[in-house]
Structure formats: structure tokens, C-alpha cells
Amino acid sequence: MLAAGGRHNPWLQEASDRIIRSDEQVVSDIDMIGPFGYSAGVSRTLFCGSGRPSDEQRTLYYCAYKEIQHNLELMTPGITFRKVMEKGHMHPEQFQDQQYAGLAHGIGMSDEWPCIYYPQVQALAYDGALEPGLAICAESYVGAAGGCEGVKLEEQVLITEDGYELQSKLPFESNLLGRKVRPKNALRLLFHHSRNWRGDRVFGEIGDAF
Questions:
Q1: In terms of C-beta density within 10 A (0-12 exposed, 13-18 middle, 19 or more buried), how is residue 131 classed?
Q2: How do strand 2-4 and strand 135-142 relate by DSSP bridges?
């Protein structure tokens, strides 16, 4: 999925012919099928243009980033799905109505199993535990109902004998996290297979801007 500006709040809107504009956030949720049929997932939110992100954009991004980092610390072998749900990051109240369906989900030969839900929908929870060899994605969407923009982040890891191994390679946005330097090739890396899409001229211009 790919969306920009208000097209990513709420999340999961239909695609449109809207042009990506400067000073907007571009959100992409990439679900890929790789070698031998294994799937992989990563989501990033990028800032378009040479300007400075707004306070709202930075707040949304930080909340999503904070959730990802918090929940990754829970990804240890032997922890139960319910324990991850109970100890998972809790969004501020203004973001809970539109939070993602689950805080983490498995990925590989099948997608979305296990799905670890938020406590608000614990009736959907089931038993099980993280085991070495399981690939799992920590996921977050942050956007207030009726707000202008939102942020979607997702990081994929492999559960190991003593913790997890990071499998996602895309960096996070340093300017949205309040740092001075951001990777100049982040958007090009995200869209480097997208040259034949309708609208590739727009993506090229955005890549040049970074």
C-alpha cells in the first residue's frame, strides 16, 4: 500500500490519482513474496521535501516508533502471545480508535499467524508462545480520528535462542525523530522497483528532492 497526505488517515483507503506534495508524509506498507515463497513485511513513513516536519508529524512518528521499539523488546523465545499483549505498548487515548488490528503478527510461509492483538480485543487472543525460528513483524499505526495525517511503521525480526535478529534493513526517518541527518537514499531504496508504475515520474521527482 502507498498513500500520502490525508490519504493515510484513516489507514487502508483506496488508491487515488492524488499527486504527492512537498512537506507531506508518504506511507508505504510493503508485503513481499521472496525466494521459495517466503513472505516479508516492512512499513515506513517518509517525509517528502526539503522543509522541516511539523510538530504534529513528528509527534505521530515518535509515537509509532516508540511502540515498535517497546514491543520489539518483548520478542524473546518462550514468551506467550498473551504476555506480549498484556505488556505491549499502549497508545495515548486519542490514537486508540484507529490503532492497527494487532501489535504484531507472524510472517513467512503464511501471513498473519500468530496475530497478537491489543488488550481492547483480547477476546480474539489465543494461546501460544514465541519460538526460535519464528519470523514476526512488530507493527504500528498512529493517527487521530479526524486528523490530517497518520504514521505506519513495521519492523520484521527473527526469533532466536536468546532474543531476536533484525531482518528489516530500511532506516527510520532521522528528521522525524529530531535528529540532524537522515539517509539520502531512503526513498530511492523504498521505490527502486517502482519505475514502471503509473506515476513513476512523481516518484522520481521525490527521490531527486532527497
A1: exposed
A2: unpaired
Q: What is the pLDDT tens value at each position of the chain, 210 positions in all?
A: 888 888 888 888 887 888 899 999 999 998 888 888 888 999 999 999 888 999 999 999 999 999 999 999 999 999 999 999 999 999 888 998 888 889 999 998 877 789 999 988 878 888 999 999 999 999 999 999 989 899 999 999 999 999 999 998 889 999 999 753 333 344 444 433 333 333 333 333 323 222
C-alpha cell at 18: 492524488
User: How far is residue 57's CA from residue 78's CA, in Å, rounded to a whole number?
Assistant: 36
Nearest to 137 by CA among 26, 8, 32: 32
User: Do 206 and 188 form a contact (C-beta atoms < 8 A)?
Assistant: no
- Per-residue burial over 15-40, b if 16 or more Cβ lie within 10 Å, else e, is eeeeebeeebbbbbbbeeeeeeeebb
Quote the pTM value.
0.81
Give the residues across from 105 on adjacent strands: 115, 137
